Amino acid sequence: DTAVSQTPKYLVTQMGNDKSIKCEQNLGHDTMYWYKQDSKKFLKIMFSYNNKELIINETVPNRFSPKSPDKAHLNLHINSLELGDSAVYFCASSQTVSGKLFFGSGTQLSVL
Amino acid sequence: KNEVEQSPQNLTAQEGEFITINCSYSVGISALHWLQQHPGGGIVSLFMLSSGKKKHGRLIATINIQEKHSSLHITASHPRDSAVYICAVVRGATNKLIFGTGTLLAVQP
């Protein structure tokens, strides 16, 4: 069974659309994250949730809104998509805020 | 200047060689991660350490907190070790993860 699963794996959409990426972990972890990997392969944290509460909210446009309905899920909703949003988005989880990370397989978002 | 610097950025080695990848950071940390990203894109955590040394198979990670430096060593390298290796530190005050830019390793048979 996949520990951290995110869907979809690929997402191609037009500028201005709204889209969501879903993430689920079955590890019983308390903390979940969203990371963005740009075209230069540089990873940067976007959000972190601990027990459904937002604990890290980096300087990302407010078009990006994370939602954590329960500890096992952290979804990422993006409004009014822009060309610059094209990237690979990784979900991850850890038992604690500084624990070992388990990553999803990534969602490659292409905004046309 | 990035708070986490890795060297080298690119590394090509022959199969069997001993490999070292370095990571230096400029902030106070509570832990350091070494991650591996394969050409297919998936990211795997190799080590998380806050002091000393850890070993897993052919991989060894060390950290020197005073010098703000960590190294990842691969013994008897193999083509399947070809990947991007990423150092990331957990910033002590905020628990925020800050990533290095990665080291692209290619091991040739």
Structure description:
- The complex is a heterodimer of chains A (112) and B (109).
- Chain A is an all-beta fold and 112 residues long.
- In chain A, 0% of the residues lie in helices and 56% in strands.
- Chain A is built from no helices and 11 strands.
- In chain A, the strands form 2 sheets. In chain A, strands 2, 4, 5, 6, 9, 10 and 11 form a 7-stranded mixed beta sheet that branches.
- The mean pLDDT of chain B is 93.
- In chain B, the strands form 2 sheets. In chain B, strands 2, 4, 5, 9, 10 and 11 form a 6-stranded mixed beta sheet that branches. A 5-stranded antiparallel beta sheet of chain B has the order 1-3-8-7-6, with no helix packed on it.
- With 109 residues, chain B is an all-beta fold.
- The relative contact order of chain B is 0.35.
- Chain B starts with a strand and ends with a strand.
- The interface between A and B is medium-sized, with 24 and 23 residues.
Highlighted features:
heterodimer, A: 112 residues, mainly beta, seven-stranded mixed sheet, four-stranded antiparallel sheet, 56% strand, globular, B: 109 residues, six-stranded mixed sheet, five-stranded antiparallel sheet, 0% helix
Q: Would you report the number of β strands of chain B?
A: 11
Q: Please write the string of helix (H) and strand (E) elements of chain B.
A: EEEEEEEEEEE
Q: Give the overall shape of chain A, derived from the CA principal axes.
A: globular
What is the largest interface, and how many residues per chain?
Answer: A-B, 24 and 23 residues
**SSE pattern of chain A:** EEEEEEEEEEE
State Rg of chain B: 13 Å
Please give the number of β-strands of chain A: 11
Instruction: Outline the biggest β-sheet of chain A.
Output: 7 strands, mixed
Work out the radius of gyration of chain A.
13 Å
Largest beta-sheet characterization of chain B: 6 strands, mixed
- Which consecutive residue ranges of chain B, at least 5 long each, have pLDDT under 50? none
> What structural category characterises the helix and strand content of chain B?
mainly beta
In which range does the helix fraction of chain A lie?
Answer: under 10%
Q: What structural class results from the helix and strand content of chain A? A: mainly beta
This entry's quaternary arrangement is: heterodimer
Whole-number average pLDDT of chain A? 91
Mean of pLDDT of chain B: 93
